[in-house]
Structure formats: C-alpha cells, structure tokens
C-alpha cells in the first residue's frame, strides 16, 4: 500500500486529521477536492483563537501548518471511486486543475467530504447566502444581534429555529412562503415570545451590493425590512463515495459512524459535517483529530499483533 491513510476532503475535519496523522509519522494523502461548505461566508465565528477569520485564511493556516510533516502529501484531486483491495483500498480520481487521473492505494480511508446546503429556489437566497441569509445563529447570531430578523421555513423546524433566534433579537418574524403548517400550540409559543408570522408567498429577497439583506418582498407587493434571514436548509452529502462503498446512511442522509468514527465499512472512517450531529468548524476539526487518533491506533494494532 502506498499510503497508510487517504483523507478525502481538506476542510477543517480533513486538515485536522492530516495534522495528527503527520505527527504520528503516517504516510498520508490528503485529497483536496476544492471549496469548503462555508466559502461564501465572511468569517468563521466561534473557532477558538480564530474567531472571525475568513474561511480561506483558516484553510491557508491549516495547509501551512502541515508543511513540516514530510509524510503528509496534499494533492488537488477529487476522488471519484474507492474500492477494496488486498490490505486496504484503491482510490481513483482526477486533478481539480489539470484533470490528470490519479490511482493510489491506502490502508485506511477517512471521509471528510462535508455537505452542501439546498436553498429554496427563490430569488435572493443563493445570492445572499452566507451574509444576509444565514444557517446558524451560533455562527452568525452575534453579528446581527438586536436587529430585525426573519426566520424562513414551515412546521416544527421553523418554530424551533425562530424561538432559538429570539435569543439574539426581540424582533423576529417567521416567514413561511405560503401555508406555514404550524400547529395551534406552535402559534401560541411563537406569540408568547412576540414572534410574528407572515404566511404570504415570498417574491424575492432584496439585498445590498455587500450581500446584506435589506428586505423581503412578498407576492402581494408588500415589503418587510430585515437585517438577516435564518433558515435550516436541507442538506446533501458533497460526495456519494460513502453510499457507493455500501456504507450505511442515516435517515437524515448523514454517513453513519460507530463510537469509534468508523463507518459500516471496515477501515473506512468519517468525520466532520458528513457525519450526524452538530456542524461547526471547530467540531469538524475535533472529529478529524479524533478520527486520526483512532485510525493510528487501528494501524498500530495491525502492525503489532499479539
Ligand atoms: C454559510 C456558512 C457559514 C458558516 N459559518 C460558520 C461559522 O461561522 N463557524 C463555524 O464553526 N461553522 C460555520 N459553518 C459550518 C462549517 O462551515 C462546517 O461545519 C465546516 O466547514 C465542516 O468542515 P468539514 O471539514 O466537515 O467540511 P467542509 O469544510 O465542507 O470540507 C469538505 C471538503 O471536502 C471536499 N470534498 C468533497 N468531496 C470530495 C471528493 N470526492 N474528493 C476530494 N475532496 C472532496 C470539499 O470540496 C470540501 O473542501 C458555516 C457553514 C455555512 C454553510
């Protein structure tokens, strides 16, 4: 096998795993397939010692700090296929810049491929994503605190998110883009927290040149001035590799892992947003670090049989 570990994805999870495995003197290939999930965000917030750093700068630092570790190789490649082979796996892919084919072997695989957010197909959502349209109050609530905010969605999801967002602002309006499918109890809870509900269909979001939200324009021509809109967007896996390898996927579309971050395919691990649970850059980095330790221990057990 050419490498001890193939890490697929060079976001927070993949970079943290590469750092730890480099420090274990492991031969690692870090396959950097391109942009991270948060690339359109002005800052990564809540990352210890790096609060507010741009996503690109966080990754630049991650790559820079890998440099002393000579056993870690970084390649700009998108992995397209991973198949089992005696002693490990064979992975094939293509260079993201030159389309050059790649074929390598590794004893273990770590999937750190992240997710992608599926935004409503309404004018303005994609354009303002990461700035005026936000996914998480823990990441961006402080930046828009005390300002007029909207929360988009329907049913239980929007109720929970709106109640959460009301911690950051006393002026929150739920916008449902048509029937909100809210139970009488949900409406009561929202009212009790002074959260208004607007079920008028949305025509578009109006933003500034800096991609801040200015207002929500409804189909009836009315406008609602808002500084930001939060939503829980459905997600898709950035890569279908786990599924193609036959790994178990949860009912919510995440890659299932056991308590040791191993997928249902032996010797294939997963970390970061791709797995179930909270999604934050620091959590992804911590999971990458933990997966690396568990992989190193698994390799050590193989190398040092009883
Ligand atoms: C708009 C926005 C703002 C955010 N703001 C914050 C914030 O302020 N604070 C915070 O803590 N979190 C924030 N997050 C969440 C944070 O971005 C994620 O939790 C974090 O990026 C997860 O890291 P990851 O390594 O798991 O995935 P990612 O960072 O998405 O990295 C996955 C990488 O894998 C690569 N990849 C995928 N498939 C392949 C393949 N087949 N071959 C090779 N490479 C592949 C992708 O190109 C990508 O580079 C934000 C998210 C969004 C959407």
Helix/strand/pairing category: alpha/beta
Distance between the termini: 22 Å
The number of helices is 8
Kindly provide the name of the CATH class of the largest domain: Alpha Beta
What is the strand tally?
17
- CATH overall fold name of the largest domain: FAD/NAD(P)-binding domain
CATH superfamily label of the largest domain:
FAD/NAD(P)-binding domain
- Percent helix among the residues? 25-40%
Order of helices and strands: EHEHEEEEEHEHEHEHEEEEEEHEH
Please tell me what the overall shape is.
Answer: elongated
- From the alpha-carbon coordinates, what is the Rg to the nearest angstrom? 22 Å
Biggest sheet statistics: 7 strands, mixed
What are the segments in which pLDDT stays under 50 over at least 5 consecutive residues? none
CATH architecture of the largest domain: 3-Layer(bba) Sandwich
Beta content comes to 25-35%
pLDDT averaged over residues? 97
- When the domains are counted, the total is 2
Distinct compounds present: flavin-adenine dinucleotide
Write the layout of secondary structure elements.
Layout: E1 3-8, H1 12-23, E2 28-31, H2 55-64, E3 72-75, E4 77-85, E5 88-95, E6 101-111, E7 115-117, H3 125-128, E8 133-134, H4 137-140, E9 149-152, H5 155-165, E10 172-175, H6 184-192, E11 196-198, E12 202-207, E13 213-218, E14 223-225, E15 228-231, E16 235-237, H7 241-244, E17 268-270, H8 281-303
Parallel strand pairs: 1-2, 1-6, 2-3, 6-17, 8-15, 9-10, 9-15, 10-11
Antiparallel strand pairs: 4-5, 5-6, 7-16, 12-13, 13-14
Helix pairs in contact: 1-2, 1-8, 5-6
Bound molecules: flavin-adenine dinucleotide.
InterPro entries: FAD/NAD-bd_sf, FAD/NAD-binding_dom, Ferredoxin-NADP_redctase_2
Pfam families: Pyr_redox_2
Keywords: Flavoprotein, Oxidoreductase
């Amino acid at each position: 096998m050419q490498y001890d570990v193939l890490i697929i994805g060079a976001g927070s999870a993949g970079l943290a795993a590469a750092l730890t495995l480099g420090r274990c003197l492991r031969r690692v290939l870090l396959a950097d397939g391109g942009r991270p999930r948060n690339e359109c965000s002005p800052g990564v917030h809540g990352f210890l010692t790096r609060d507010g750093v741009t996503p690109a700068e966080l990754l630049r630092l991650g790559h820079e700090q890998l440099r002393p570790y000579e056993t870690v190789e970084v390649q700009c490649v998108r992995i397209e296929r991973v198949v089992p082979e005696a002693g490990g796996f064979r992975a094939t892919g293509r260079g993201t810049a030159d389309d050059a084919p790649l074929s390598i072997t590794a004893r273990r695989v770590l999937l750190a491929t992240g997710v992608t957010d599926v935004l409503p197909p309404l004018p303005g959502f994609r354009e303002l994503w990461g700035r005026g349209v936000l996914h998480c109050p823990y990441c961006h609530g402080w930046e828009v605190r005390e300002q007029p905010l909207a929360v988009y969605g329907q049913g239980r999801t929007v109720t929970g998110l709106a109640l959460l967002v009301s911690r950051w602002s006393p002026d929150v309006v739920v916008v449902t883009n048509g029937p909100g499918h809210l139970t009488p109890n949900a409406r009561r809870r929202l009212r009790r927290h002074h959260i208004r509900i607007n079920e008028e269909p949305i025509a578009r979001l109006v933003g500034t040149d800096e991609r801040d939200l200015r207002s929500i324009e409804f189909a009836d021509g009315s406008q609602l001035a808002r500084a930001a809109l939060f939503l829980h967007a459905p997600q898709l896996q950035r890569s279908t590799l786990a599924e193609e390898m036959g790994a178990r996927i949860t009912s919510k579309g995440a890659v299932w892992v056991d308590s040791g971050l191993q997928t249902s395919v032996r010797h294939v691990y997963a970390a970061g947003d791709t797995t179930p649970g909270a999604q934050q850059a620091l959590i992804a980095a911590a999971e990458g670090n933990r997966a690396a330790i568990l992989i190193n221990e698994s390799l050590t057990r193989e190398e040092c049989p009883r």
